[in-house]
Write a structure and sequence with these properties.
This protein is of the alpha/beta class. The chain is 47% helix and 14% strand. α2 packs across α3, α5 runs antiparallel to α6 and α16 runs antiparallel to α18. The chain starts with a strand and ends in a 38-residue tail after the last helix. Bound molecules: 5'-O-[(L-methionyl)-sulphamoyl]adenosine.
Length: 527
Amino acid sequence: MSKRFYLTTAIDYVNGQPHLGHAYEKIIADVIARAHRSLGEEVFYLTGLDEHGQKVQQAAIAEGKNPQTYCDELAVSWKNFACALGLTNDDFVRTTESRHKVVVQAILTKLNAEGHFYKAIYKGFYSPSAETFLTEKDRLPDGSFDASYGKVIELEEENYYFKLKAQQQWLIDYIEATPGFIQPGYRRNEVLGFLKNNTLEDLCISRPSSRLNWGIPIPFDPNYVTYVWFDALVNYISAPASQGDESVLSVFKGEQLSSISKLNSQNTNFSLWPADLHVIGKDILKFHAVYWPIMLKAMGLALPKQILVHGWWQKDGQKMSKSTGISVDPIAVIHEWGLDAFRFYVVRELAIGPDGNWTDGGFQSRYQAELGNGLGNLVNRSLSMLKRYRNGNIPTRSDELMADAEKAVQETIANLRGNELQAALQSIWNLVSRGNVYVQQTEPFKLAKDPANAARLDEVLYNLCEVCRVLAVLISPFLPETAAKIYAQLGLKQLPHQFSDASWGSLQAGHEIGEPAPLFPRKDKPA
Ligand code: MSP
């Protein structure tokens, strides 16, 4: 069984409409997925929805719907959203699907039988809106709880707990011994700091069905359901299990194994687990870097190879929120400016790690400068000049820009291998600029005026067209529509999907290109 490069995103809560933050995460994961395919690897990209919990239940009730109907309706718009972003996900998991629930229940049964849980009474503070228990440590210096927890209530309740306390040291040792496990490095230090300076509290994994019933029934106690982390995190292995991934299935036996196997949707010949990459936002780092590894170890499964943690977007320096209406609607932007312009901006503007700030002005100036005047202009004038001066026929090969192109290819691939997507775009745009400077330096429009310069003009035009072709290959993971358009305008039938195609000299003398057309039309700002 061959192992695929398996990458995942966080699964989004289904209690509202998707916004820029959700779009960003899915796009960076998509760029990484496409980049690995361009490197010739087999990839499996998973995304999906987190559909249980009190917030979903309450939102459904507010709309007079049963929670499943509510989730089914919203899932349609989230799946359409994934399409609108051009995602190449291979599966879309929903935590209310039977294939997921059966895996969660099998894990609960297994871990319970192996003594990982106990039942205890909890008395203390609880935030219904954050769906989390709070301790004295969560109090602010003035004694109150942070406003993000909403109204905090006192609660006394018996629940199941997952034992975490004994697991602290091996996890510290593992993170210290595995520098690439959490990226960027400062997020890794944050997790190590947390683990070294705190004693892990055991994790509450249940809620009484009487209080919250929109969860997965605990198989060994019908009075309880599980939800949130013990439910959501498991999506990363329930989807592979449903694909028939032996590396996950091998930890289950007997009844559990047969109940999972019954729901296998496919008979695959590849394995996925361990995940190569979990792409997540900074707010859910602790769950992925602390609870999830401990859960996996208890289950007998290998740990994911890497957790890539991105920052949060703001709009005009303010937190995006439903209540204030401060938000960016990715669909509206895509509608007006095109999908690739949106994908370009979010990856180019922000390295994976720090927080970012969306401004409409910033978006428009990158569109104009880097896409319109940069890439768009280079491709349009190169192809138009070839049409005008050579009837659209590619001249004999010339290698004047070969070294520049090769440098860009190498740098782009190295940056992509390190998940440095912003830096990869910078490497590609160095070649865009080189191409535009080359036009200014060689002045093909002047060369064309004198037939004595024909050989030189041939050289210049070959270099320009071949640079455009190499650029199409390099941008393909980021701007797939534009890459395909450039290839079509070059009269090439296939798609620029393999980095091996970026090697110099592939355009053949005599090949006739197609019709040039602007890639990023100028938009005049409203007066
Ligand atoms: N359902 C949980 C994740 C479970 S994963 C097993 C959840 N959902 S969420 O909808 O609140 O967030 C989904 C992802 O979107 C998270 O990685 C989160 O960090 C990210 N973002 C939500 N708002 C964001 C921004 N404003 N900016 C960037 N990413 C943001 O958490």
